[in-house]
Design goal:
Layout (H helix, E strand, L loop, with lengths): L1 H10 L1 H30 L12 E5 L2 E4 L2 E5 L10 H6 L4 E7 L2 E5 L4 E6 L8 E3 L7 E5 H7 L6 E6 L2 E11 L4 E3 L1 H8 L8 E6 L5 H11 L5 E5 L2 H6 L1 H38 L2 H9 L4 H40 L13 H22 L1 H5 L2 H7 L9 H19 L7 H35 L7 H12 L1 H39 L4 E7 L1 H8 L4 E16 L2 E12 L11 E4 L8 E5 H7 L6 E5 L5 E10 L2 H4 L2 E4 H8 L4 E7 L2 H9 L5 E4 L12 H30 L2 H9 L4 H39 L10 H24 L4 H8 L1
Parallel strand pairs: 6-11, 8-10, 16-21, 18-20
Antiparallel strand pairs: 1-12, 1-13, 2-3, 4-12, 5-6, 5-9, 7-10, 8-11, 9-10, 14-22, 14-23, 15-16, 15-22, 17-20, 18-21, 19-20
Helix pairs in contact: 1-10, 2-8, 2-10, 2-11, 2-23, 8-11, 8-23, 9-13, 10-11, 14-15, 14-25, 15-16, 15-17, 15-25, 16-17, 16-25, 17-23, 17-25, 17-26, 23-26, 24-27, 25-26
């Protein structure tokens, strides 16, 4: 079927150009998404401080979930220190050195990473190795920036306290370095655990064999032996976290991207098939089988797609590079994480797009290929019959489901309600795509019945054309409504979330002052004697496993950890229990989290802390302001019992702000500010929200490009209609006037539908969460989206019409026939 396919395509190139544009844009989006996924799956941060080690022994840094991606831990899972000695006795191991990393605050200077000296000794050293509790080696860059040199004394603050140290050595290895005993004491890991073990191989040793022997020797401890590029992720936890987030982001985008690509490509193909209905009918009349007709259309579409894939995929790689740069600027991805620009992503995009085109082409040509030849010839010049009852019923059922999703925020105040309201738009768009022809026919029919006898001919023709060709009109309306719906829903869902968080934090923060800087547990006790309450604050996460219908599910829940006295500095809207009991192994849960976990006050629940520690905590309170304060509020005692003392950088104070300011003035690098500056909602949207808006803007742009191409191709296909009107006396001005009125009708119905399926759920969301029955955010987005959509619809219809009218009608009729 290749030759007849290409022969027909040359005469109907307009429709296939729309297909090619849809595929090119789709290939760019799919390629960019695939690059994100491939980067998350294969890229690694470069090994830095531990580059001299051939192998690294580390604990498993992710929570394994059967048949689901693992959840990376936010904090380091320790390795038993005594295993270093066992590793050193394995054949082929020259040295096995334990490694520690802990925060160290250098006087009024920066916060550094503290390490034990063994891992810094391999680099160039100026001076003598630290040998005692009052000595350290400092990296040359920090020493130069702080004006320090060998022999100088500096004041350091760690989780165990503040002390003076003498600089005995300068090294190129970044950070502050202590002798092993001092580093162990300052890190204060429970049980003397270490972060990892750096293994150096003897000359001639086989790395794979040594790794296997190490795994055997250290079996039973849940350890990983990593080599090569994997060492970078073992050294820097941020690499594994960022990779997991990229995979999650790509997974979240993939469904929407594939849906949009399918929508736009199918719409472009339906226009192309509609332009060839007469040719297909004649093929059926001369004996072509339905399968041959479908293969012919699929071959045409695949040829157009193949021509568009190369520029589309190349654009996708450029988009991925820019998108990763934006993620890096927003501190969501480490700058050192390399982007995976391999042919795999482009190949995956090509396979997916070609498969999509094949499916869409065969679906679009199914009706033309299966109807009897005589009926196909008769229908080739008229609108197809009314859509099937099953299609229409399914469409209205989906619209009803979308309405149910929209009203959920009125009854449920949780993240699920946000998701339900946001996804209601996509459900409604699919429902409208199925029921659209009936809806458009009813709307235009009502307009047609209201036309008075003196109506201008172009207006009369525009209304009756829109009514008679309801399928064609509904296809354009659906995609235009999708563009409006995506834009308004994404913007208003993000701004409503921001407003909700800000309102809950404003209502629930009670701190009189906030102390920031390196603060130890002893410092907090001292500060508490001068004020009413001094409460340390830590942002962390916990994991809880659930069993749903026989499957194991788990997710990381953002958690605030607060010290005793939390009830003096925050008011999260406690509905049961009391925050005064938040000490020891206890937690408080938001209403949504308590319902999800089926837990209440007095229950004990199993949790996994951010460092992988499994523990059990008692629920002492349930609160309602879960968006502002997160799903879980834990006691800092619960964290300290398993991870040891911490160096806090935020303390909330209840009492006289002047007393807090006076106290902070006596501590180097510590400051106090009136009010609660830690839990104050940031102005505008967060970097994550801006990324979501950026992604959705790109998707909306693709939708608008697709609908513009489809409208232009559909209008170009009407050249015969325009020529016939010219022959019977219509002037070019009258035809342009008619087309403008059709564009207005299409845009008006699309704007009404788009706003209904997006503004309604966002208004209900705003009412449910803020008490205000309108979208929470910049209202100018609504008229801007409507105006842009109308402009694109008008331009995509008016420009091809003007071009078609430049050709004399007799020549145009001959060309069409």
């Amino acid at each position: 079927m290749l030759r007849p396919s290409l022969s027909m395509a040359r005469k109907r190139i307009g429709g296939l150009v729309a297909v090619a544009c849809a595929v090119a844009g789709g290939a760019a989006m799919v390629t960019a998404t695939a690059v994100l996924a491939e980067t998350g799956a294969t890229s690694h941060l470069p090994v830095d401080r531990l580059a001299a080690a051939d192998l690294l022994v580390t604990a498993d840094q992710a929570y394994a979930i059967p048949e689901n991606p693992d959840l990376p831990y936010a904090e380091r899972v320790p390795v038993p220190a005594e295993l270093a000695a066992q590793a050193a006795h394995v054949d082929g191991v020259a040295a096995a050195v334990p490694d520690l990393t802990f925060p160290v605050h250098l006087g009024a200077g920066p916060v550094l990473d503290g390490h034990n000296w063994q891992t810094a000794a391999a680099g160039p050293v100026d001076g003598d190795a630290p040998d005692g509790p009052g000595e350290l080696a400092l990296d040359t860059a920090t020493a130069r920036a702080q004006g320090l040199d060998l022999g100088d004394t500096v004041t350091l603050t760690t989780a165990t306290g503040t002390g003076d140290y003498t600089i005995t050595a300068l090294t190129d290895t970044p950070g502050a370095h202590f002798d092993p005993a001092t580093a162990t004491a300052l890190a204060a890991h429970p049980g003397g655990g270490v972060d990892l073990i750096a293994v150096t191989l003897a000359d001639g040793a086989d790395p794979d064999q040594v790794a296997a022997d190490l795994a055997t020797a250290l079996t039973g401890h849940g350890l990983n032996i990593v080599s090569g590029d994997d060492r970078g992720d073992a050294e820097h936890l941020a690499g594994g976290t960022a990779r997991g987030e990229l995979i999650a982001l790509a997974g979240a985008l993939s469904g929407t991207v594939v849906l949009l690509v399918g929508f736009i490509t199918a719409g472009a193909l339906s226009v192309s098939v509609a332009g060839q209905r007469r040719d297909l009918a004649l093929l059926r009349a001369v004996g072509a089988t339905p399968r041959q007709v479908r293969r012919l259309i699929a071959t045409q579409a695949s040829a157009a797609a193949a021509a568009a894939l190369i520029p589309g995929i190349a654009l996708g790689y450029l988009i991925a590079e820019r998108f990763i740069a934006i993620l890096t600027e927003a501190a969501l991805v480490p700058a050192a994480l390399p982007l995976a620009l391999t042919p795999i992503s482009g190949l995956a995009a090509a396979v997916l797009l070609l498969a999509t085109v094949q499916i869409a082409a065969r679906g679009a040509s199914r009706r033309a290929s299966t109807m009897p030849p005589t009926e196909a010839v008769a229908e080739s010049r008229v609108e197809p019959r009314r859509p099937g009852a099953a299609r229409t019923a399914t469409g209205f059922a989906l619209l009803a489901v979308a309405l149910a999703q929209s009203i959920l925020p009125l009854f449920l105040r949780s993240e699920a309600a946000f998701i339900s309201a946001a996804t209601a738009t996509m459900t409604a768009v699919i429902g409208f795509a199925l029921a659209g022809p009936v809806i458009v026919k009813a709307v235009t029919g009502r307009i047609r019945r209201r036309l008075h006898p003196g109506t201008a001919a172009p207006v009369w023709l525009a209304v009756n054309n829109s009514h008679a060709y309801a399928l064609r009109t509904a296809g354009s309306v659906t995609v235009l409504a999708l563009a409006i719906g995506l834009t308004t829903t994404q913007v208003f869902s993000q701004t409503t979330l921001t407003r909700t968080i800000a309102d809950e934090l404003a209502a629930g923060t009670r701190a009189d002052a906030t102390v920031t800087g390196p603060v130890t547990a002893a410092d907090i006790d001292d500060l508490a004697t001068r004020v009413d309450a001094a409460v340390p604050l830590v942002a962390t996460s916990v994991i809880r496993e659930r069993h749903v219908m026989g499957d194991t599910e788990a997710e990381a829940t953002p958690t605030l950890a607060l010290g005793p006295g939390a009830d003096h500095v925050i008011d999260p809207g406690v509905t049961a229990g009391s925050l005064a009991d938040l000490h020891g192994d206890t937690v408080a849960l938001s209403t949504a989290t308590a319902g999800l976990w089926n837990a209440g006050v007095g229950d004990r629940i199993d949790l996994v802390l951010a460092d992988g520690t499994r523990t059990e905590a008692a629920v002492v309170a349930v609160y309602e302001r879960g968006f502002g304060f997160g799903g879980v509020i834990a006691s800092t005692d619960l964290l300290a019992a398993h991870s040891g003392p911490r160096l806090y950088d935020t303390v909330l104070v209840a009492g006289d702000p002047a007393a807090a300011t006076a106290w902070a003035a006596t501590r180097p690098g510590t400051a106090a500010a009136p009010g609660d500056t830690a839990l104050r909602a940031p102005s505008g949207m967060s970097p994550e929200q801006w990324v979501n808006v950026l992604v959705m803007a790109a998707m909306t742009g693709y939708v608008l490009l697709g609908v513009g191409n489809s409208l232009a191709a559909s209008t170009t296909r009407r050249r015969g209609e325009f020529a016939a009107l010219r022959v019977i006396g219509a002037t070019p001005h009258q035809i342009r006037h008619m087309v403008r009125r059709e564009a207005f009708i299409t845009a008006a119905v699309a704007v009404a539908a788009g706003l209904l399926i997006s503004v309604l759920p966002m208004s209900l969301l705003g009412f449910g969460f803020t008490g205000q029955p309108w979208p929470q955010g910049p209202l100018w987005v609504v008229p801007a989206a409507a105006a842009l959509t109308t402009l694109i619809a008008y331009a995509a219809i008016a420009i091809p019409t003007r071009q078609a009218l430049k050709t004399p009608p007799t020549m145009l009729l001959a060309a069409v026939d």
